[in-house]
Structures are given as C-alpha cells and as structure tokens.
Design goal:
mainly alpha; disordered C terminus; metal-binding; metal ion binding; cAMP; EC 3.1.4.-
C-alpha cells in the first residue's frame, strides 16, 4: 500500500539565515524521498507559497504589500490569541442555553454575532463579516457552524485542538492573494452550509457527512499560491513534480489539510480507522474541485438525475452529492447578488492578471485569461458563467426540485450574466470607436478625450 506524504503549509519567513535555509532545503529533500513512514510529519512546514514568492513573485513593487500583509497577519493572530485566553468556553464556563452563540462571547462585537444569526441566508456579506471579526471570518464561522450542528459534542472534539486546527487552516491561506484567500474559504463554507440545509439533502445527511462537508469547504484551497496548475508545470515547481502534473493544487490542499489535522491532534482521540477514513473522504471531496474534472462530475450527476437512481440512504451517493455541493459552492460567486458577485469577479481576474504579468516579465507564454490587455473582466465572466456555472447549477436546480434557494441563485445568475454581457458589448464598442479615432488624421473630428465605460449607466 502506497504511503501518504503529509504536507503542512506555512507563512514565509524572511529572517532566517542562509545556513538555516540550506538545512531546511536538505530536510525538504529528505522528506520528499522518504515514503516508508506514512504518518511522520515533516519537521519544517513545506508550503507552496515560499518557493514561488522568493524565486519568482517577489518583486520590488510587491515588497511593501508583503510587509503590510505580515502586519495584518500578526494583528489577526494577536486578536485570535486574546480571544482564546479570555473566552469563557476555554475556561470551562460553557453556557447551557440551547442554541446559544457561546463560541462568540462578549469579547467579540455584537454585529458579528447578529450576522451569524443569519448565516443561512444567501445574501450573507462575507466581506463585512470578515471586517467585523478582524480577519478571523473562517475561524469564527467554522466554530459557529460546528456548534450549530453539535459536532463538537458528537465527536468529543477538544476545544483547544479545534481552535489550533482552525487557526492553522486560516493562517495557511495567503492574504496577499486577491481571490484565493481565507475570505474565499469562508465564503465557500457559508455557501456549503446553505446547500447542506437543502431539504432533499438535509434529511439524509449524517453528522459525519456534515463534518466532512464543512471541513472540506474550509480547507479546499489552503496554501493556494495564487497561480494555476499550468504555471506550476511550466515553471517546474516542486509540487508539479510531486503530484505528476495531475490535480496538483487540489492534491496539495488535501495533503496540507491532513498535515494540519495530525499536527493539531484534532482527531487523535478517534479510532485509527475512522480518522483515516475521514482523511481519505476529505481528499475525495477536495480533489473534486479540480475544474479539469468538471465534465466528469457533471455527466455523472446528469445521468443520476435522468435515471432517478440517486439513493441518499447510501453513503456513496451522499458522498457524491457532497462533492457536487462543494463544486457548486466553489463556483457560486456568479449566483450571488450583483454587488457581492462583482467583487469576487474583479478579485479573481486581478489574480489572473498578476500571474500574466509575472509570465510576461519572465518571457513565458501568457496563460489563457491572464492577459489584462486582451482578456477583460466582462469577457472572462460571461465565458465562465456560460461554460462552467450555468450547466452545473441547471442540474443542481433539478436535484433540489427546485428549492427557493435554487430559484434565487438562478435568478441572480441570469441577471449577472446579462449585466456582464452588456458591459462586454459596451466595452467592445468603445474599443472599436477608439481604434477608428486613432486612424483619423491629426486635427480631425475624432479629437477629444477617450470615452469611458460608466458601469452606473449600464442597466
């Protein structure tokens, strides 16, 4: 039986001496080659981000951004530590009021608690929640949802270990990524919670299913480097070699999560076979988010619906639906209200453009959708909605028969697609007009300032 190599992600440390760095490199090399000890964690954290940041992405323009990110990370950490030390829960003074939000006691703002009382609504503003929790949205959301479902009591989870694991998970995301950061993870987790509440699914799910669904959602992009798999392959990154150019990022997210679970000891009190099963099922869920496997899952989902043979009393069918739910949650941004959806669209495109700028700087072929000069946000979004989001959510709506939530999401999706299409058309018209004016002789009637697209003027 092949051994599982466990990874842990971590923050970049710039202060280490050259001797320490050389020692770490030798340790990492030894760790990759050692496959005879499946449960031994590497002595040092080995994340995807440090190699990319130090060798390629660290430019003079970004140094200030990295330093600012470090200050924010320290501020979040101190806030989280203050919470852990002062919480009545960790002192053993746990309120017995049913449904109480004791995981968010008086140490935290009332606004955040009030927002959590509406966490199951589709218009939940994760950006506002992240600000109210001082950047701790993922930790606070997961604590609340675990409490809502009674997972802490059911699995007899140690609270200190749980907070340790969630802290590792949140800090494992890189805040300098415009899109793939802890706020995205919290957003996907909140969407997953909404999907787990769908009547057809909720009445059949076990608490283990819920634990797996929420944890996979929170961890599905941990230690994301802010670049895609083709970039890792063509730059010969060690992760691409490790996972043989197949589901590279998703495999890393999974192995990193397993490393955090083991390092925190969250599941150490459970029987070995159960904890190993949880690790494997988390891997199956996270690997399902690989966008290159979209058609594989979509066709299987469609066949189940057409044959009407989904039996949610079967563990395997429930697991498949958790995979579908996580895939939906991962790409549900176009199904949000326009103001939220637009923010996510701009963030993901900014991340694409940053990769394209790096590729251009190092004379690499610019990846699709990463050229800011030719790939506009409206064009990227209309394509993404048409080829990825719409086909998936059409089948999800059939599965829910359809629920009120599905109808709400479909309504937002149609409106957002129409709005991006109008913006794309308006932008194309301006580009054509600008080109025609450039061809006119100097002093012609085409002089004047270039027109700008005002989004407010697009209905």
């Amino acid at each position: 039986m092949s051994c599982l190599m466990v990874e842990r992600c971590g923050a970049v440390t710039f202060e280490k001496s050259e001797t320490q760095n050389a020692t770490q490199v030798r340790m990492l090399a030894d760790g990759r080659q050692s496959t005879c000890h499946p449960v031994v964690l590497l002595a040092e954290r080995r994340g995807s981000f440090p190699l990319i940041d130090l060798r390629i992405l660290k430019t003079s323009d970004q140094r200030g951004e990295v330093e600012s990110s470090t200050r924010k990370k320290v501020k979040r950490l101190l806030s989280f530590q203050r919470y852990c030390h002062s919480s009545r829960l960790l002192r053993g003074d746990v309120p017995q009021t049913p449904g109480s939000l004791h995981l968010l006691d008086e140490d935290y703002l009332g606004q955040a608690v009030h927002m959590l009382s509406k966490v199951g609504t589709w218009n939940f503003d994760i950006f506002l929640f992240d600000r109210l929790t001082n950047g701790n949205s993922l930790v606070m959301l997961m604590c609340h949802l675990f409490n809502v479902y009674g997972l802490i009591h059911h699995f007899q989870l140690d609270m200190v270990k749980l907070h340790r694991f969630l802290g590792m998970l949140q800090e494992g995301y890189h805040s300098q990524n415009p899109y793939h950061n802890a706020v995205h993870a919290a957003d996907v987790t909140q969407a997953m919670y909404c999907y787990l509440k769908e009547p057809r699914l909720a009445e059949q799910l076990s608490l283990l299913d819920v634990f797996l669904g929420l944890t996979a959602a929170a961890a599905h992009d941990v230690d994301h480097p802010g670049v895609n798999q083709p970039f890792l392959v063509k730059t010969r990154h060690h992760l691409a070699s490790l996972y043989q150019n197949t589901s590279v990022l998703e495999s890393h997210h999974w192995r990193s999560t397993v490393g955090m679970l083991r390092e925190s000891g969250l599941l150490s009190h459970l029987p070995a076979d159960l904890s190993q099963d949880i690790e494997q099922q988390l891997g199956s869920l996270i690997l399902a988010t690989d966008i290159s496997r979209q058609n594989e899952f979509l066709l299987t989902f469609r066949e189940h619906l057409e044959n009407q043979d989904l039996d949610l009393t079967l563990a395997s069918h429930r697991h498949f639906m958790l995979q579908i739910a996580l895939k939906c949650a991962d790409v549900c941004n176009p199904c949000r209200d326009w103001e939220l959806s637009k923010q996510w669209s701009e963030r993901v495109c900014e991340e694409f453009y940053r990769q394209g700028d790096v590729e251009k700087k190092f004379e690499l072929e610019i990846s699709p959708l990463c050229n800011q000069q030719t790939d506009s946000v409206p064009a990227i979004q209309t394509g993404f909605i048409s080829y990825i989001v719409e086909p998936l959510f059409e089948e999800w709506q059939r599965f829910t028969q359809p629920s009120l939530l599905s109808q709400t999401m479909t309504g937002h999706l149609k409106k957002n697609k129409a709005r991006w299409s109008r913006l794309r058309y308006a932008q194309a018209s301006v580009d054509v007009h600008s080109c025609s004016r450039d061809d006119e002789p100097e002093g012609g009637e085409g002089g004047g300032e270039e027109e700008e697209i005002e989004e407010e003027n697009i209905p």
